[in-house]
């Protein structure tokens, strides 16, 4: 089973993936963590190389991570917050990658809520609690405001993450067992 979580920063993708993975005997792969391992600080990389170079490198690292999954191995791949929002011409293969990701049975968009204001408020609150981000409320508000409609309109199942992580994990385990039948 290959599961992919997509959504904005602060939606709970990594938290849910790390709790779900051991329960379904899956490896948890996080694209942001892999980027940090391979290239270092994401903000610094963008400052030095530009967002287009970051997007291209992130697409290449996504393909590496996806390719690292062994046949028969269960995995959860957590995509970066902006991964689904790149311009389709960012990379020659990006449009096909995005299409495949959205069409696979175990791809999920994680959002705190489909109510835009509620989602934005929760995302901003969560992001501001992460001291390592070196961000501010205005920056996070603008980012999620621009991206909310993109994520809410993606053609794959949505998982609302305003509940406790363990409840979301239980919901996903039930959903996954139903899909396997």
From TrEMBL:
Gene3D superfamilies: P-loop containing nucleotide triphosphate hydrolases (3.40.50.300). It comes from the Bacteria. InterPro entries: P-loop_NTPase. Pfam families: AAA_33. This is Shikimate kinase.
